[in-house]
Every structure is written in C-alpha cells, then in structure tokens.
Amino acid sequence: xxxxxxxxxxxxxxxxxxxxxxxxxxxxxxxxxxxxxxxxxxxxxxxxxxxxxxxxxxxxxxxxxxxxxxxxxxxxxxxxxxxxxxxxxxxxxxxxxxxxxxxxxxxxxxxxxxxxxxxxxxxxxxxxxxxxxxxxxxxxxxxxxxxxxxxxxxxxxxxxxxxxxxxxxxxxxxxxxxxxxxxxxxxxxxxxxxxxxxxxxxxxxxxxxxxxxxxxxxxxxxxxxxxxxxxxxxxxxxxxxxxxxxxxxxxxxxxxxxxxxxxxxxxxxxxxxxxxxxxxxxxxxxxxxxxxxxxxxxxxxxxxxxxxxxxxxxxxxxxxxxxxxxxxxxxxxxxxxxxxxxxxxxxxxxxxxxxxxxxxxxxxxxxxxxxxxxxxxxxxxxxxxxxxxxxxxxxxxxxxxxxxxxxxxxxxxxxxxx
Length: 418
Description:
By secondary structure, the chain is of the alpha/beta class. It has two domains: 6-137 and 348-368, NAD(P)-binding Rossmann-like Domain (Rossmann fold), CATH 3.40.50.720; 140-343 and 376-413, Dihydrodipicolinate Reductase, domain 2 (2-Layer Sandwich). It has helices at 15-23, 40-53, 64-69, 85-97, 116-128, 143-160, 178-181, 183-186, 190-206, 233-242, 342-345, 348-361, 369-388, 413-416; strands at 6-11, 30-36, 59-60, 75-78, 105-109, 132-136, 165-171, 217-226, 257-265, 271-279, 288-295, 298-303, 309-313, 334-338, 392-393. Strands 12-11-7-10-9-8-15 form a seven-stranded mixed beta sheet. α4 packs parallel to α5 and α5 (116-128) runs antiparallel to α13 (369-388). The longest helix is centred in the C-terminal third of the chain and has 20 residues, at 369-388. It is globular, with a radius of gyration of 21 Å. The model has no long low-confidence stretch (mean pLDDT 96).
C-alpha cells in the first residue's frame, strides 16, 4: 500500500499518550485521527488536545475494532497499560483477519510484554496479522543520544577503538498511576517499568552504526533489586491512601531500586559491559536520565537535568504543585532546571517521525517488536539473577516460562530481612 500521508489512532489516552500527542507538532506526513480509551472522559480530553495542537481531527472511538474498521486509520499506537497489551493486540489481529479493516502497521509502547511469554505472543500476533511493527523506545531517538553516538563512533572509535562500557540510569520519585505500583498488574516494579529504557539505550550506544543488533551478543546478566523507600511505614501508608487501600507495600511491595550488569561480546569476542540503574526513590528536581559511553581515549555524558534553562523562585513565591518545569517535578521553588521541550529531549518526536516514515515507505521500523522481545528477555534474566543472587548466563533455558516473584505478589524483602 502506497500512501504519502497516513492517519493514526491512539489506544490508551493517559500520561504517556499525551507525550506522543504533544510530540506530533514535529511529526510529518501523519495526522492523529482516532482515540480509544476505556475511560470516555480521558479519551475526550486527549482528542481535545489533538485538536488544540492542530495535529489531526481526532475522533473518539467506542472500540479498537471500530478504529481498525475506519478507512482513514492506517496505523495504531498502543499506549494502554501493560496488563492490556495482549487483549489489545488480539483485538487488532482479530479485526484484521476477519476482514473488518486494514492497517499498515502498529506501534507498541514499552515494555512489549510483562514477561517473555507475553512479549513473544505480541510478536506472534503482529506477524500473524502481517503488519509492520514498531517498538516505542523513545530514548534511542533522543537528539543527544543520536548525536553523541554519531560523534563518538566517527571521531573516537575510529581512531582509538570501539567503546567498551555504556551506563544508563533513569530515576524519579515514583509513577503517576496506582497500577504502576502493583507488581501483578505492571509485571514488576521499577526494573520492568524503567530498566527497559536503560538496557536498550546502553545496548544501542555500544552497537556500531550501521550494524545489526546481533553484532553484539549478550552473554550474562547480574542484577540486584530492593525496596529502599516505599516499604517504609510512612511511605507505604501514602501509597495505600492514594489508592483507596489497594496498594499494600507492607505485604506486597514491588522493587523501587534495581541495578543490572549485562555482559556482551562483539564480533571479535571482545567483552563489552552495560551498567544500568533505575529508581523510584530519587528525590531531586524531577525525572533524571543519565547516560555515559566510554572507550579507550574518549567518553560522552548525557544528563537531562543539566538543562540549558534554569529558574530561581524565592520562598516568597508559593505556586501550586505541578509538572510545568520537568516531568515528575518535586519542587516549585529554589533553583530549578527546566526541560523546555520534553517531547524532543526524551526522543518522542524523532521516534514518531521514524515510525511514520517507515510505515509510509512500507519498511519495518529500525526499532521493532523483535527488539522489544529481546529487551524483555534481558529484563526477565535480571529478575532471575536478583532472585537467585547470582549471575545468570544468557539466554537461560527457563526464560519462556519465568514469571518474577514480584509479579506473582510473592516478593517481600521486608519480611525476608526480619
């Protein structure tokens, strides 16, 4: 199918979907024409945002099938919660296979699945429907990451040898929605929620430009998880109050801190190291993404809180709480960094431009469900390592059936420590 401009429908209209919508002011050759969310009010608000930004004539649909059946919709963006991934993809696939509509492609937010079995099912379903597939890992498309990698490999690696160590960290004070905190719904804690970003962006930095993913091979994973802050009684009570007592971090916590080391080898057998750290226990100005790439005679560093704009507000100014300066903002006064264009800084706009360009050209995007599947494999190996307190060779034969204890509601470091 050859089109010069395509229509996009968004499934799930929450916080993440709004990042995509806001990024669309920089996306070419596509309009957001559909919104579906089980919450009608949330869907209407997202559609209004699309109209206000003039990035499409978005209509609220009553079902995913109805959106597939609309001839103006050519591609779908899955932005609904982790625990809905399979049912959403099954409905899309069923609508396609029963002739209710036609699509060019589908994109899915991270993580692709809550475990390897779910991620594999997502890949199977999209292939069954014969759709192009994109995995929405925005950090790979951050301008700082793209430009930094380009320069390091052209100027540093060319003369001194390839980089051998990549570090990536994502830290903030905790998720927006209650379901994120529940291991059984989300699939885990901060490791599943945020390390999916870190392991992939670090792998991307270590991969030579122009070479495929398998040019470097993961050989082992070592990880550690803890609940450092949110199982403390006073903080567990905050979560309980904010969720009508549904979230119980005294008895059913999820990890709020995780670190992992992934060992790779390149095509010559040289060992490469990825170090990742993620936390829901970081209290700073707001969300902090930091990445480093190190080689024999060079290094690069990215820190999103080291912004080009900073504001100082005295203690006499008492504004309402908000996130108008930075995502996951923790303060309204003092010297504060401002991330002036978060959709660009975090890579959403270039990510979406890549997906649209690929779909129009009839090409599978460079970041796709196969990449998301491999990310899930690495995350599950990290959980396996943390549970067994040892380094796990990759790939482990039990990955297909492994479910983390935290995702089963059986992980409780507070009880293990007493």
